[in-house]
Write a structure and sequence with these properties.
about 400 residues; DNA polymerase, domain 1; 7-stranded mixed sheet; 17 helices; about 50% helix; about 10% strand
Length: about 400
């Protein structure tokens, strides 16, 4: 079923609720070189965001696709997997995550207008409304951002807000794409768009969960046995949060995970087996951990603590530990290299490297001083621009 109406600026708006209409639209969109895309979702008490609306703009009309009513998305999947149609987003990271969790697939080609603006020196995280105002001199009202997108029926204000979010994207993309080509940075930009797609895939890949423990506050304070257990605990929590579709903090808070790892990784008079770990808990080893967490997951904690191979290594571990004065100086010099390189190419420094990337580089160098390591988060085109300057910082010490 299709319900048509009109936005205030005379742009048609169509609400789509059935698979047959979606299939016809996907056939129509498959003939285009690009479509504008946005999502509205809710994430309050779940791990995965719940898709409430999918908006598509084709330059002539805004289409509001209802994921609560449309059951067959096969034609849309074919469209996403096409090499011929580019999906235009603004700040697409969350949208891609929602695509993957709700549909199970991602667009093959994307154009992120926020990222394009960064490459053109307009700022690292310009909002859609700010970019539309800056480049198209149009004002967008953001008055229902926090409304309930899972309610039905959606209000007229909600529909209007959602529809406007894809009205200008094609025009912005055409303008920004031309400027990227003129500036000769299109290849870099396209590589970053591909990296955004890969990042969404990596987030769901269990192979990448083994480093989650490194981001926990105070993890750096643990000894190697504690870190090995913390790694196992974080992987377990990641799986449990997904299985129950609950926020990770609702399963076990970070501070409690660190406390469990600190206490149960200790060798004690009770022995290393399950009975010994249970005796440690009975004696109050986890007295600082939320009692409801201990009651629910004590057996899981014991199982993980016993199963860990404490002879394992943690090569390449990167923690947000306080830097020594010497490393702080090195970080500032690396930041200066990034800033000067970005200025020379007229792009936002954040496009080249953020602080976490530089910290990763510093830790990799410390762990492999005789090699020339490079953080995998920094793509090859960035390496070409930054490596010489980074090596200059290192050789100065």
């Amino acid at each position: 079923m299709i319900e048509a109406s009109e936005l205030d600026d005379s742009t048609p708006m169509v609400y789509v609720t059935d698979a047959q209409s979606l299939a016809a639209l996907c056939e129509r969109w498959s003939q285009l070189d690009a479509i504008a895309v946005d999502t509205e979702f809710m994430r309050t008490d779940t791990f995965y965001a719940k898709l409430g609306l999918l908006q598509i703009g084709d330059g002539q009309c805004s289409f509001l696709l209802d994921p609560l009513k449309i059951e067959d998305w096969t034609p849309f999947e074919r469209l996403c997997r096409s090499d011929d149609v580019e999906f235009i987003f603004h700040s697409c990271s969350e949208d891609l995550s929602v695509f993957l969790s709700h549909f199970g697939f991602l667009p093959r080609r994307i154009f992120d207008t926020q990222l394009a603006a960064s490459f053109l020196g307009l700022g690292p995280s310009l909002s859609y409304a700010a970019l539309v105002l800056l480049r198209l001199e149009q004002v967008i009202e953001k008055d229902v951002t926090r409304s309930d997108w899972l309610q039905r029926p959606l209000t007229a204000a909600q529909q209007r807000y959602a529809a406007i979010d894809v009205v200008h994207l094609i025009e912005l993309r055409n303008q920004l794409r031309y400027e990227l080509r003129e500036k000769n940075v299109s290849d870099w930009f396209e590589a970053e768009c591909l990296s955004l797609i890969q990042a969404a895939i990596d987030y769901e890949s269990e192979d990448n969960w083994s480093t989650l423990y490194q981001s926990l506050s105070n993890a750096w304070r643990l000894n190697e046995r504690g870190l090995i257990l913390l790694r196992a605990l974080c992987i377990w929590r990641e799986k449990e949060a997904r299985r129950r579709d609950k926020p990770k903090s609702w399963i076990v808070k970070d501070t409690d995970l660190v406390e469990v790892a600190t206490r149960l990784a200790l060798q004690s008079e009770f022995g290393e087996g399950a009975a010994g770990k249970q005796a440690m808990i009975a004696k109050g080893a986890l007295s600082r951990v939320d009692t409801s967490v201990v009651k629910r997951y004590a057996s899981v904690f014991v199982e993980l603590a016993v199963a860990c191979d404490y002879t394992d290594t943690l090569d390449g571990a990167i923690f947000s530990a306080p830097l020594s004065p010497e490393l702080r100086k090195r970080l500032k010099k690396l930041q200066a290299v990034v800033a000067s390189t970005a200025e020379a190419h007229g792009i936002a420094p954040e496009v080249l490297a953020r602080k976490r990337h530089l910290l990763a580089f510093i830790h990799l160098v410390d762990a492999n001083p005789t090699q020339s390591p490079w953080p995998r988060e920094l793509s090859l085109w960035k390496k070409d621009l930054l490596q010489a300057g980074f090596e200059g910082v290192l050789t100065a010490h």
